[in-house]
């Protein structure tokens, strides 16, 4: 259902292990491997600063601002597209499709009756019980639009000569240069070898196909995960003012009051690092990860697992393991400051669980490691984040509900954001002139 009928079979997360998935992985590694991330630092900084500025103008829309930040960062990294401040058409379509994907198409583990009885695929559209075929037709068209729309934008900017460096434009232009150089080497300029020309054309088409689907997959996978992590960070800060105070004291000591934190401060801010680890652990954004299909019969802890079984790596249970994380339900960044040996330090690092496992482990983990860190430290440096109050000054306890099938994204809740001081406000304003 998910792959064929809804048109998602070429999205990275649904591509079975093989040639195509290896090509996609290579592209993602080129774009998002640890060596590429520093290239994105200026962009991450400018997106983070605009997020804080928007928040200070109208904090009642903080969730919309968070969505704009999460989508904007990936749209820019992938396609070189800078979304409008509000109601951007690409972001609106992305939100609709990511919601469709998480809550309708793959809701409930992504297993539909037609996956168990494939003959249902051939049900006539008028037959009772064929409702899923009607839905699939509409969803497939939407998903195709979602893949094509930002990519078509990118192609139009390349054609117009206005493309800015991005994952897609860089790889397409590199490939174009290689093709031209190869052609130039071949020549005997008067004759074009048709076999070679056909081969080049095929390679270019394949690259384009891979790029289009890979960029879209990264874009889809980054939106709700980033939003989930950010919303939980805000929730944790609202509920633990002593953590905020301790973090702000560390930032004030290391960064001072006259500028905003930068990546070069990171090594000197161990408590912020601990908050980041604890946020990922306490509120794993994808608690059951994505299902993996077993490729061979296997035996695990004496249990036989037949080939074809779907396995969920329950990282939620792992990050609630009391042997590694005492009082695991509580938000305690200090647990990551305790001196431990190397093996224990590795075992307690939530990044080993929350980003999944093995060959399909999250390829966006290095990007989020930088972007989320800067977002958290900048929010702490500039803002007070407290529970909202009603018209009579009574504190509104946040009501936290979850209604998403894949991501542990909380429903909207209020938070009172205020600038920490006049000085901070003026430092934040200065980022506008340097943007
Ligand atoms: C806090 C943020 C994030 C978390 C917790 C997270 C977590 C995960 C998890 C658990 C998986 C499944 C891995 C598995 O199958 O074992 C995954 C897959 C994936 N993630 Fe992330 N992710 C995050 C952010 C991102 C970002 C920012 C991007 C892209 C820019 C991204 C791109 C992907 C892609 C493309 C896949 C599919 C990989 C495949 O099937 O081969 N993720 N992520």
UniProtKB/TrEMBL annotation:
Stored Pfam families: p450
Cofactor(s) the protein needs: heme
Domain of life of the source: Eukaryota
Database matches in SUPFAM superfamilies: Cytochrome P450 (SSF48264)
Cell cycle listed as a keyword: no
UniProt entry keywords in alphabetical sequence: Heme, Iron, Metal-binding, Monooxygenase, Oxidoreductase
InterPro entries: Cyt_P450 (IPR001128), Cyt_P450_CS (IPR017972), Cyt_P450_E_grp-I (IPR002401), Cyt_P450_sf (IPR036396), Cytochrome_P450_fung (IPR050364)
Family membership: Belongs to the cytochrome P450 family.
Protein name, UniProt field: Cytochrome P450
Species for this entry: Hohenbuehelia grisea
């Amino acid at each position: 259902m998910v792959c064929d009928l809804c048109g998602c079979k070429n999205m990275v997360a649904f591509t079975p292990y093989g040639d195509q998935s290896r090509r996609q992985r290579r592209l993602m590694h080129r774009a998002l491997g640890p060596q590429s991330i520093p290239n994105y630092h200026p962009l991450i900084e400018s997106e983070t600063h605009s997020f804080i500025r928007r928040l200070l103008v109208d904090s009642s829309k903080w969730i919309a601002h968070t969505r704009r930040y999460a989508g904007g960062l990936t749209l820019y990294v992938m396609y070189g597209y800078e979304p409008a401040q509000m109601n951007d058409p690409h972001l609106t379509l992305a939100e609709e499709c990511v919601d469709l994907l998480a809550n309708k198409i793959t809701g409930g583990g992504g297993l539909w009756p037609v996956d168990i009885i494939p003959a249902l695929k051939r049900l006539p559209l008028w037959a009772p019980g064929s409702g899923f075929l009607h839905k699939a037709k509409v969803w497939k068209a939407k998903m195709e639009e979602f893949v094509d729309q930002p990519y078509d934008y990118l192609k139009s900017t390349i054609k117009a000569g206005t493309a800015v460096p991005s994952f897609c434009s860089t790889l397409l232009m590199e490939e174009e240069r290689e093709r031209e150089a190869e052609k130039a080497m071949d020549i005997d300029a008067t004759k074009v070898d048709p076999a070679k020309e056909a081969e080049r054309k095929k390679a270019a088409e394949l690259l384009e196909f891979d790029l289009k689907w890979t960029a879209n997959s990264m874009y889809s996978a980054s939106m709700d995960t980033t939003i989930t992590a950010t919303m939980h960070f805000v929730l944790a800060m609202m509920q633990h003012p002593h953590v905020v105070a301790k973090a702000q004291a560390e930032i004030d000591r290391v960064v001072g009051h006259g500028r905003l934190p930068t990546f070069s401060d990171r090594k000197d801010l161990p408590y912020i690092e601990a908050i980041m680890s604890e946020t990922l652990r306490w509120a794993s954004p994808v608690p059951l990860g994505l299902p993996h299909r077993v490729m061979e019969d296997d035996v695990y802890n004496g249990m036989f697992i037949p080939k074809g079984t779907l396995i969920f790596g329950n990282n939620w249970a792992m990050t609630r393991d009391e042997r590694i994380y005492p009082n695991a339900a509580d938000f305690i960044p200090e647990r990551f400051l305790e001196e431990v040996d190397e093996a224990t330090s590795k075992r307690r690092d939530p990044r080993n669980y929350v980003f999944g496992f093995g060959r399909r482990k999250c390829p966006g983990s290095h990007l989020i490691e930088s972007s989320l860190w800067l977002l958290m430290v900048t929010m702490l440096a500039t803002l007070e984040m407290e529970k909202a109050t009603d018209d009579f000054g009574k504190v509104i306890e946040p009501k936290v509900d979850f209604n998403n099938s894949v991501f542990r994204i909380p429903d909207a809740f209020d938070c009172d954001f205020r600038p920490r001081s006049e000085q901070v406000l003026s430092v934040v304003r200065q980022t506008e002139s340097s943007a």
